Amino acid sequence: MKLFEELTQLHGVSGYETAVADYIKEKLAPLADDITTDPNGSVIAYFKGTGEHKKRIELAAHTDEIGFQVIKIEEDGRIMFKELGCCWTFTTYQSRVRFRNGVVGVVASRIPPEKLSAGGYKRYTDCYIDIGLHSKEEVLKYVDVGDVACYEGPYTELAPGYITAKAIDDRVGCYMLLAAMMNVKKPKNDIYLAFTVQEEVGTRGGQVTAQRIQPDIGVAVDVTPCHDRPGDLEGSNALDHGVAIKISDTGSISDEGLVNKSIALCKEHNVPYQKDVIYVGGTDAGAMTLVGGGIKTIGFSVVTRYTHGPNAIVSQKDIEATVKILELFMNADFEQI
């Protein structure tokens, strides 16, 4: 899991994912038949299939994480900011954030914190980042308008088999694509691993990569909300129940043939799985399915507690199950789909 740990600790707020892209290209260079970077910054690694009835399959995981961008620095040194992607005020208040240059600050409130709104586009107008200084002049030596910050959430192992970190959404997806391909090496299908940008601000990279690849099948590899604790939506997703096979979400409805094929693969190879149905949230599958004349899509996800915050929790068993279905999918026969 060393790769996973390293990926979570990289800085990659939407629009500023260069460090993550460079890391992925370095790891895949010895294996891929071709690696390209599109103008937006998404990385596409191509692996030529060896099978007789091979399909073009795009497996997409996004490199960006939620974060914050400086919009103004007050005369007293308070750093005003906006969110890049959905970040809840109740998890952001009093959290530490780290800028790309390494400067760390604490998110504070200029009103009583119990009055902070949990929703709406104005949710952060009453918050600011404090790096401990007293004037705009001092702050400008370290932070300027336009600079971006992400949560400070170190990779930590909890009870055996459980992990917390910032940016699990979706560095776990990037990790699983790397791990699966390192195991398979020579897939039967033509595989395009797409490490997309700006998913958290509108699944932008997912649309562009799919347009470039024009796959027969598109797969979004991401996280999905956990429902086994109070207060985190409604549904049946739970930690330790295996790979979450996407049925539907806000942005996509998975192809029924691909769902049935995936379940059959899981049953045949004893891979634990659960059916993922959520009514809030989406992945790059929603962007891929609309490209060109339409693309059959599905999603494989890791159930995650406390998403879009500095301390998400995932199960290593679920990660291993998802890596396994990815390996099987790369080598599966889709002639009848």
* Helical proportion, percent range: 25-40%
Mean pLDDT: 95
Structural class: alpha+beta
Terminal CA distance reads 34 Å
Order of helices and strands: HHEEEEEHEEEHEEEHEHEEHEHEEH
Indicate the proportion of strand residues.
25-35%
Strands, count? 17
Helix count, DSSP H or I runs of 4 or more residues:
9
Give the radius of gyration.
20 Å
What profile does the largest beta sheet have? 8 strands, mixed
Describe this entry's structure for a reader:
This protein has helices spanning 2-8, 18-28, 89-92, 136-139, 168-184, 204-213, 256-268, 284-288, 316-331; strands at residues 34-37, 43-47, 56-62, 67-73, 79-84, 96-99, 104-109, 127-130, 148-151, 156-157, 162-165, 190-196, 217-225, 243-248, 273-277, 296-304, 312-315. The strands form three sheets. An eight-stranded mixed β-sheet has the order 1-2-12-3-13-16-14-15, sandwiched between helices. The mean pLDDT is 95. It has nine helices and 17 strands. β1 (34-37) and β2 form a beta hairpin. The chain has 337 residues and is an alpha+beta fold. α1 (2-8) packs antiparallel against α5 (168-184). The chain is 26% helix and 28% strand. It starts with a helix and ends in a 6-residue tail after the last helix. It is globular, with a radius of gyration of 20 Å.
